Amino acid sequence: MALGESPVKQALRWIIEELQSNPSASMVKLIDLAGQKFNLSPLDSDFLSRHFAETRAKNQKK
Fold first, then answer.
1. pLDDT at position 1 over 70
2. Which residue of 23, 31, 36, 50 is surrounded by the most CB atoms within 10 Å?
């Protein structure tokens, strides 16, 4: 984690690392854990949910 990096960016990076080590992990659980680990607001968690949903949708179109 970079010094001064926002909690959302830290959470995003952590979730990506977790998915790389366990691709079948539940996204809902990972976002919930990231919210606790990085003290995210509900809006931050919602952003992460939307981000990963949009990313998944784009990858499925390819």
1. no
2. 31
